[in-house]
């Protein structure tokens, strides 16, 4: 684990919360799988594409001293001293006089302040202000949008401003912005074209400005800031590039920079594709120009989104929402697949698995609120390429029974699409991590499809997939029990693909309380919800009747499993004593679908809803599901907790079960993210007693956007309205 010392200096976000300023966060365009990660001290951020973590490059932003001309102060995002280490590869006997004196010092921790929002990240130190804008908005549907709309939405650039207040200065001062490239196959370079002065590395990353700046490349930034001869400023052996401008005495001046990302050729294997932005851009320098052209609009949109979130949420939750949104966009890819067309891909953070389905079902709320077509297209791809038909088995029994349609865990990994009918993750013969998730992904497809239809009203799509809905209901029932009279509504058989192993859930690295899929309480409630939401899509059919009958059975099984205190077992009927918070997770789906009748305590399933409410009421105590700091433990028997799932269950507890917000827990969860050992990986999901031990650099935290809603109105339109008016 790479870590950096956490400063005692405090900064105030736009939301009023005081947190240490030195934590990494993404700054990313939509669909480019690219990020300017920044925030940790030292070269622990940088400009990266398609990476599982930060690029570990130095970022250089600074200003000439007002009191000591020829010396400079910079934000602490590089090693902090000049080096000619690379020169030693050439000058083996040390004969060169290339060396420059160290003229750049770092601002002290106490001088550095940060204002952190979902779109704007602003650093101030002395009379220097460094602002990064990474705006987002609803993405147009490629099936109906114009080329101009798509081009504007998918420009692979972010926006940077460096402002120096030299009103009290007696002389002109230099300001600079740049980075240390880390691509070993392409050199840093400067360029000047189309009225833009820029720096870049190879054909993939560039920074450019239309302001009065000059560009330089060197090993030492002093060689660019104070060159002995102007013609030496572009020393192409160097690995550091800067753009340098001058601020006259008595003035405030802002320099604008477009930071552009660009993948030129084929982006993926398995199914060849290019990034969608290749329809409009042929080189990274064109992206720089497009970014500069759209700067004013991007800045205004960023300010609007941040202000709306700040007005809606308390400071702690607003900060977490901002952090989760950034990590989500940093994981996104908008691909243009040969012979298929556009496909939205969300990469699974440090693991880089593509469209992992148990993430899709949790990112569903944000994606439906902003871009419902992304869910439609992902569902279609799972049906056409990443579904399969299988048989199933009882545990410790080789007899095969009918199964049916199932769905893969993911579509591939690391820019490689997996073969049709298979994921990159699932393996036979296992009983834990890397085993199959056939039943959970079957349920996830059903829930995602039902919420897509309920939110969009896309009856044409629903009619097209009616046969798939029927197959899903039958497959779910088959995996309960092959004999209808013996069914209890929940999963009882594992896929034959396990070959003696057993299926798992999205909580793959947790103990049996949440890791085992068969008879799992968390999955049982989701299964109940899936049956009920599928029923109206199959009205006037035997499959609709089966779906309702199975839902009734599932509810009865869940209620009957309660002990005398009212606690429900994490795994039903197998002697597992653990108790779990995600028992309530399945209630979110009828709530978001607008089916309040299904979760009404006085309705048909009121007994089950009351049982879940009673169960939850007994959990939030230290000997069960609370950590010592007040953070939530998803399972009473594990130290492993997922923040994305905690956010989701917090929303359910508050908006469906009527509990007040747990502000102590919120503060604990934010403290986990800001822990000095966790801050390097931006937003992380999986926490082991507050330490990130997996699922880092992760997109799934956007379950937090449900906090933007109020009970009594449809949830998804509220998310869109709060963000964009």
Describe the structure.
This protein is an alpha+beta fold. The protein has 2 domains: 11-307, no CATH class; 347-724, Glycosyltransferase. It contains 18 helices and 29 strands. The chain has an 8-stranded antiparallel beta sheet with strand order 8-9-10-11-18-15-14-13, with helices on one face. Strands 7-6-5-12-17-16 form a 6-stranded mixed beta sheet. A 3-stranded antiparallel beta sheet has the order 19-20-21. Strand 13 and strand 14 (196-201) form a beta hairpin. Helix 8 (438-456) packs antiparallel against helix 10 (466-478). Residues 1-18 have low confidence and may be disordered.
Architecture blueprint of SSEs:
Layout: E1 11-12, E2 18-19, E3 34-37, E4 46-49, E5 59-64, E6 72-74, E7 104-106, E8 112-116, E9 120-125, E10 128-133, H1 147-153, E11 157-166, E12 173-180, E13 188-193, E14 196-201, E15 205-209, E16 213-218, H2 222-225, E17 240-247, E18 251-261, E19 273-275, H3 284-293, H4 295-312, H5 315-329, E20 332-337, E21 341-346, H6 357-370, H7 372-384, E22 387-393, E23 401-407, E24 412-413, E25 416-417, H8 438-456, H9 459-464, H10 466-478, E26 494-495, H11 512-515, H12 521-534, H13 542-560, H14 588-592, H15 606-617, E27 640-642, H16 643-655, H17 663-674, E28 686-688, E29 691-694, H18 715-724
Parallel strand pairs: 6-7
Antiparallel strand pairs: 1-2, 3-4, 5-6, 5-12, 8-9, 9-10, 10-11, 11-18, 12-17, 13-14, 14-15, 15-18, 16-17, 19-20, 20-21, 22-23, 22-26, 24-25, 27-28, 28-29
Helix pairs in contact: 4-5, 5-17, 6-7, 6-8, 6-18, 7-8, 8-10, 8-12, 10-13, 12-13, 13-15
